[in-house]
Amino acid sequence: MPRDIQVSGAYGYQPTKQQIQRLQTFLQWLPTKKAPTEVVIVPPEKMGEVSKIYSQVPTNVGLTVGSRSYINAKLFDPKDDFVKNELGPEAKFPSGSALEWTLAHEASHLNDSTSHLIQERRDYLQNAAANEAVTNYNNPQGTAYQSLQKQVDGSQGQIQPTSAPIATQLSDAPYSLARSQRP
Asked: Which residues contact 127 (CB under 8 A, 6 or more apart)?
């Protein structure tokens, strides 16, 4: 089922169309019951401040409050050095997938029914779920899905369906024949 996922920026950050599509494509694919309904992209220099406001456990990468996830804009950096330095060896993802890994990690928190404090003590479970999700997203079926979504996103606005009355698509002959046979 398609998910309605809002993407916005905080503190003046303006996400690009490509960033929005990347986030939405992954979260729509993610095979979980719950996913964030909104993702807020936070400039790197403000992520610590957001973390202090919303989280008992400081983070510079991402956090989830309710059904809204806050992520560091540095996650879009294809090098992933920032995230690997922040998260350490427990985060296992292919190069260029730090954003997806973080979103999967946060979605795993949303799907965990234990208390927030217990979840943070067992954060390795969310790491494992994120590792598995990103591995699957980068396998042949996942990359085929990504390619298809890129085609769909790239063709939006190019192909416009036209509405036309049915009489213009079919000849009038069947209607005339049917009318003539009425009692």
From this structure: 87, 90, 91, 105
Residue 1 scores a pLDDT above 50: no
Domain map (residue ranges) of the chain: 6-155
CA-to-CA distance for 1 and 143, rounded, in angstroms?
A: 19
What percentage of the chain has pLDDT greater than the value 90?
31
Distance of CA 144 to the CA centre of its chain: 16
d(CA 74, CA 60): 10
Does pTM top 0.85 for this prediction? no
| pLDDT tens figures, 46-73 | 999 999 998 877 888 999 988 899 999 9
Measured CA distances, 63 to 44, 51, 105, 171 (Å): 14, 7, 9, 60
- Dihedral, 95, 140, 148, 8 alpha carbons, nearest 10: -40
Nearest one of 27, 5, 9, 61 to 145, comparing CA atoms: 27
Give the phi and the psi of residue 70 in degrees, each rounded to 5. Answer: -110, 130
Least confident of 22-31, 55-64, 76-85, 172-181: 172-181
- Name beta bridge partners: 68: 38, 65
CATH ID of 6-155, from 3.10.450, 3.40.390, 1.20.950, 1.20.120: 3.40.390
